[in-house]
């Protein structure tokens, strides 16, 4: 019985000591219009993005945190949720947006910790979709 216990502890320790696995490796096609965003503890950088109207856009979000879960929520001018995407921990997540009409959009993290939301701590930003010229 004791051997099985020792074996179990060693197997558990070996499983926890491996190299970290990057969640969701991503590829960007050469023709994609890409905007980069960084997600870290309670912030998105930059906090303001601008993209052209009626153009498909991909937001590449690099998450710095490897333990804390984050998300990317995009709301339209009327408050309707357009995108709700969990973010890869310690890696990149691609969020592909369909062409959007001109206007101001809000993005934020909807996760919380001990009753305090990440958004309330400052993890939000603005996506400005600029009119066509």
Structural account:
- By secondary structure, the chain is mainly β.
- The protein has one helix spanning 2-16; strands at residues 34-40, 43-45, 48-52, 57-63, 71-75, 81-86, 92-97, 103-108, 112-113, 116-117, 124-130.
- The protein has one domain (30-130): Cupredoxins -  blue copper proteins (Immunoglobulin-like), CATH 2.60.40.
- The chain has one helix and eleven strands; from the N terminus they run αβββββββββββ.
- The strands form three sheets. It has a five-stranded mixed beta sheet, with no helix packed on it.
- The protein is globular, with a radius of gyration of 19 Å.
- It starts with a helix and ends with a strand.
Helix content: 10-25%
* Total number of domains: 1
Fourth-level CATH superfamily: Cupredoxins -  blue copper proteins
Largest sheet: 5 strands, mixed
Quickly count the helices. Answer: 1
The overall average pLDDT, rounded, is 83
The CATH class = Mainly Beta
> How far apart are the termini?
75 Å
Structural class by helix and strand composition: mainly beta
Radius of gyration: 19 Å
Low-confidence blocks of residues = 4-25
CATH topology: Immunoglobulin-like
Overall spatial form: globular
CATH architecture: Sandwich
Strand arrangement, major sheet: 3-11-8-5-6
Tell me the number of strands. Answer: 11
β content, as a range? 35-45%
Instruction: Please write the string of helix (H) and strand (E) elements.
Output: HEEEEEEEEEEE
């Amino acid at each position: 019985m004791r051997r099985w216990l020792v074996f179990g502890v060693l197997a558990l320790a070996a499983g926890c000591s491996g190299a970290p696995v990057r969640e969701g490796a991503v590829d960007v096609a050469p023709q994609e219009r890409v905007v980069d965003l960084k997600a870290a503890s309670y912030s998105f950088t930059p906090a303001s993005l601008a993209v052209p109207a009626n153009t498909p856009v991909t937001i590449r979000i690099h998450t710095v945190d490897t333990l804390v879960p984050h998300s990317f929520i995009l709301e339209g001018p009327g408050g309707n949720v357009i995108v709700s995407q969990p973010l890869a921990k310690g890696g990149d997540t691609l969020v592909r947006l369909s062409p959007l009409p001109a206007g101001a959009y809000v993005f934020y993290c909807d996760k919380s910790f001990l009753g305090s939301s990440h958004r309330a701590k400052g993890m939000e930003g603005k996506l400005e979709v600029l009119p066509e010229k």
